[in-house]
Write a structure and sequence with these properties.
Structural class: mainly alpha
Helix content: 55-70%
Length: about 500
């Protein structure tokens, strides 16, 4: 199966955004500003020890020269021309990295309906929906390098009305894509001096979905700010770290945090792994014996959809005190993903994937209106969905198809998308609660992701396997957003 702010505030190392523990809240209410002299972690990720990424790169290079391949990919496809932190973490999966860099380079730099500065400003608007200062910083630089007007970086009131008109679809795509209708499309493409052509709109939608999803990867993988001393453009934003400032006083570093973040010992983790392996084996045997009826599978989907809405990401009760200023790039900052079932309001509608699939509908539409991007996106979706090393932690020769499918389909379930041929009972069997909390946070509220959440699930798995999870979540989210937007465009055309 395939589905596949900007004024300078101190320095990048001295002004940061922190998750705040309950013991520090009173202090923060009294103190207006906290300055930190040193970053808490080194390397590309605050969640993954730097030595592990370096060790993996050396191991891969010795095996088949893929590290050299990564450098060649960066030279050819990186818009910044350097090995940034996202690329370093993704290089744990070099096969996927190539598909990612090629598609991103195409949408940012190759021939397309939108001018280059527009592309980077749309990326800024998308990243700002999730307060992702890492991506905002990156595209502020690229916006200026491609000839963007610096005044636009003062906020939305300084940009052309055409760009400003994207605010509504940006907001809905990021948080509640099921609300997008053909009326939203008609409003954007109606005749007038500020209208969008359909090719331009498809290009914009692809960029918005890409950077919403990439923000999920950035937060889910604990991507550290780039160590870039050049803040001369005056628009450098603050850094992001997923620790409380009081960790400094306790001399916490990433290794210490990894050891203390869980109350479970090695024996518990190993038994957890063995239990998951056993559930996978049992599910496979049951599937071979007897398949559930369509009615039963529909019932299981509705049950899982409702339960997914009841998964509370506040299980890790930390608050974010934000000192970054990306709000200038968005409207209605309080608008977010809505837990319908928990609030006792209207239910999340069901999108039957068979009625509008990426393979049969979305792919052809996006390729017709924005040449070749459909092929690149399709390759990326297929790559991440089929990517496997046939390993699970210390086990080898394992078929992980069932687990990958559960992760991908669970993300779509949270957005109301149902596959008729999938038994959603597998999700409950394969994804334990702490993993569901992590998935929901990374997918729906990525800015709330903490290292504790990352450490809480699959404690015996390699970091590279958790990065693979994040790649699956990112691509599943992007595909879900595209399905809703492209369906609305199709309805506008018919």
């Amino acid at each position: 199966m395939n589905r596949g702010s900007a004024g300078s505030i101190g320095s990048a190392a001295s002004a940061s955004e922190y998750r705040v523990c309950s013991n520090c809240r009173k202090v923060l209410r009294q103190e207006k500003r906290i300055r930190v002299s040193q970053p808490l972690t080194r390397g590309p990720s605050a969640f993954i020890p730097e030595k592990e990424i370096v060790y993996f790169a050396l191991k891969v290079m010795q095996a088949n020269g893929l590290n050299e391949r990564t450098n060649l990919l960066v030279e050819e496809y990186s818009t910044s021309g350097r090995l940034d932190n996202i690329t370093q973490v993704m290089s744990l999966h070099t096969q996927y990295l190539e598909s990612f860099l090629r598609s991103q380079f195409y949408m940012l730099r190759m021939d397309g309906p939108l001018p280059l500065p527009y592309r980077h400003y749309i990326a800024i608007m998308a990243a700002a929906r999730h307060q992702c200062s890492y991506l905002v910083n990156m595209h502020v630089d690229e916006f200026l390098k491609t000839g963007g007007i610096a005044e636009w970086l003062n906020g939305l009131e300084y940009i052309p009305q055409r760009l400003k008109n994207l605010n509504e679809i940006n907001k809905l795509l990021a948080h509640r894509p099921w609300l997008i209708t053909k009326e939203h499309i008609q409003k954007l493409v109606k005749t007038g001096e500020n209208n969008w052509s359909l090719p331009e709109l498809v290009h914009a939608v692809v960029l918005l979905a890409h950077y919403h999803a990439l923000a999920s990867f950035v937060f889910g993988s604990g991507i550290n700010p780039e160590r870039d001393p050049d803040t001369s453009n005056g628009f450098r934003l603050i850094a992001v770290n997923k620790f409380c400032v009081c960790d400094l006083a306790n001399d916490n570093n990433i290794e210490n945090a990894s050891l203390t973040s869980s109350n479970f010992g090695i024996a518990d983790s190993l038994s957890e792994l063995e239990a998951l392996m056993e559930r996978m084996k049992r599910l496979q045997e049951e599937k071979e014996e007897e398949e559930a009826s369509q009615e039963e599978m529909a019932t299981r989907f509705e049950k899982e959809k409702k339960e997914s809405l009841l998964v509370v990401t506040g299980a890790f009760d930390d608050e974010m005190v934000s000192t970054s200023d990306v709000s200038r790039y968005i409207e209605d900052p309080g608008f977010g993903y809505k837990d319908f079932a928990r609030r006792g309001e209207e239910h999340l509608p069901t999108f039957r994937a068979q009625d509008y699939t990426w393979e049969n509908h979305g792919f052809s539409l996006v390729n017709r209106l924005y040449s070749d991007i459909g092929h690149l996106l399709d390759e990326k979706f297929r790559m991440v969905y089929n990517l496997t090393y046939n390993t699970m932690a210390t086990h080898e020769d394992v078929d992980t198809t069932m687990l990958r499918r559960a992760l991908f389909n669970y993300v779509h379930c949270m957005f109301g998308i149902r596959y008729d041929d999938y038994d959603y009972g597998e999700v409950n069997q394969l994804l334990e609660r702490s993993l569901k909390v992590y998935i929901k946070t990374v997918t729906c509220y990525p800015e709330r992701t903490t290292k504790r959440m990352y450490d809480s699930y699959w404690r015996q798995f390699r970091h590279s396997e958790k990065v693979h999870v994040n790649l699956l979540l990112m691509e599943a989210r992007m595909q879900a957003e595209l399905l809703y937007a492209l369906r609305a465009i199709t309805r506008h055309l018919t």
